[in-house]
């Protein structure tokens, strides 16, 4: 089955979108344009998938990669093939040292970070899925009559594979990789960049097409440049740090507000004697009377009465007044002069069932 060019573009686009979506909710430092760049070299062998006994050819290349997120990377790849025309079944090899050159744009998905999450630094071992589209040109000398008069061939190709990466060093500055892949061409008997059919001949027998796919395995070394955050990879910004920042700005004013309310009640109402009452009562207990007995005759005092927050406002106002009246009557019987009586009802959540007696 031949590969449809439009369908393959859709597949690559979907993979890229999924990779970006998997890290859209996370926040990372070191993601400026000049951050997370790396450069690498690779070399290996290839052979066609139709006929495994075809002699293998050598390949070598250079890669320039930009990390978009810990999951998604974009790679520009330039690769050359050496004595490997037989991989595409050209029957008679080119006499050139470099038989073909491929320019490739790849999308790479870090499967470990996708499914396992990014921990703020690369793992020692990681697996990446790779997919891309590119352009291959095959070179033939003019005296090679088996290739339609020595004309060069052009092919649009797709590449799919995996990178098995080993990240080395304290900062994971170096990556050693093993990269198996399959390369597919988009046409069988026509050049997508030139619709004129190409004819390949061998001993008088001519064929208008070659193989559709080759297998390739390379090994490579990659160097990761430093980023603006001082590392060589993305650094995760943890949500807990943001939470602490918000807490510092939101909670402190609330704490100050509560302190002011408490301070207002205590400072204003603290007297020399505090008389406590039972809930919903305005009757003096023996303990309350004992406290009031400590105030000497002819002493001038002021009273501030309160109620606890239970009940409605109007009732609590009357209740605090009754409590003040009870204390006033008892003190005046003992010769104490009461000059100011203030019934406050309820003031704040700290208000209690008390009357404060302040000696002037």
- Rg, rounded, reads 43 Å
- Give the overall shape, derived from the CA principal axes: rod-shaped
With strands numbered from the N-terminus, the spatial order across the biggest sheet is 2-3-4-5-6-7-8-11
Indicate the structural class.
alpha+beta
Helix-strand string: HEEEEEHEEEEEEEHEHEHEE
How many domains make up the 3D coordinates? 2
How far apart are the termini?
105 Å
Mean pLDDT: 76
* Portion of residues within helices: 10-25%
- CATH-derived topology of the largest domain: Porin
Which CATH top level class of the largest domain fits?
Answer: Mainly Beta
Strand content: 35-45%
Description:
There is one protein chain. This protein is an alpha+beta fold. It folds into 2 domains: 5-241, Porin (Beta Barrel); 271-359, OmpA-like domain (60s Ribosomal Protein L30, Chain: A). Helix content is 23%, strand content 38%. Strands 2-3-4-5-6-7-8-11 form an 8-stranded antiparallel beta barrel.
Features:
60s Ribosomal Protein L30, Chain: A, Porin, 2 domains, eight-stranded antiparallel barrel, about 350 residues
